[in-house]
Amino acid sequence: MLGDVLGRAGRKIAKKIIPQFKQSLDIDFVTINGENLAGGFGITSKIYDEMKLSGVDAFTMGNHWRDKSDVHLIRQQHKDLVLPQNLNGISGVEYAPEFHLPHRNKTINIINLMGNFAMKEEYKNPFEFLQKEKEHFISKVKSGSNIVIADIHAEASSEKQAMAWYYDGILAALIGTHTHTPTSDERLTENGTAFLTDVGMTGPYDSVIGMNKTRVLTKFINPSVKLPHEVAENDLWLCGFLVEVSPQTNLSLACHRIQCRGVDEENWLISSIV
Ligand SMILES: [Fe+2]
Ligand SMILES: [Fe+2]
User: Which positions bind Fe cation 1 (predicted)?
Assistant: First the structure.
């Protein structure tokens, strides 16, 4: 799972690393948070195609999910674009979609939920979704057929951590996204849930959460100034979370936080992080 992949620079690193990861580490399934792929805001059809070619199996989203209108067409055509299940007034998002891994005889469910703290829009209470689906997911995991993973897209660490504990022993993995700032609290609980409060952004860190720092500062200092954001380009970091799942329990055996700072995108080698 890679955190919010941001703009051209983020895409470039992700496209380079994902095929290497899949090949060298025998990775079955790659998800990325795709809400910032297109210049920091949303996703386009062209970018969706590019990322699929690099080996992305599924995309999760967040508050920027509809910043580009292409998203409506993409979601009609492809079920691997996962939208948060607690969006208000959007039909067809209410269930965590299933992805089949035939060679492992497994199905992966992806939960993607929005937190409500400090968001511009209001979302349905994510805990209501989790409460409603809890028994369903417990039986799927226990039956041996399904692995359940979650991307919780939220500003508040408290919301993300509470959700992880609520689904402890049900989820193979939960990663937090949205803040674009990685935390270093990765853990594997006694009950087999791998968890990281925020995986961070894959993109330019010579910035304020991915955006040109001079422009952001100007806007903070002079709030009346109308100045569009501009994506930053320098100091690229790759941030992700690698999870090893037991075929017996459908829960995790190990997890690794991946954080590579100052990626030289021309001379990138998987050996530099693993
Ligand atoms: Fe984001
Ligand atoms: Fe976000």
Answer: 4, 35-36, 180
